[in-house]
Amino acid sequence: MGNKVRVVGSRSGLHILLEVKTNMSEEELIETAMTNEVKVYPTSKYWIDVRNTEHPIILLGFGGLSEEEIYDGIIRLNKA
Question: Which domain of life is it from (predicted)?
Answer without folding.
Answer: Bacteria
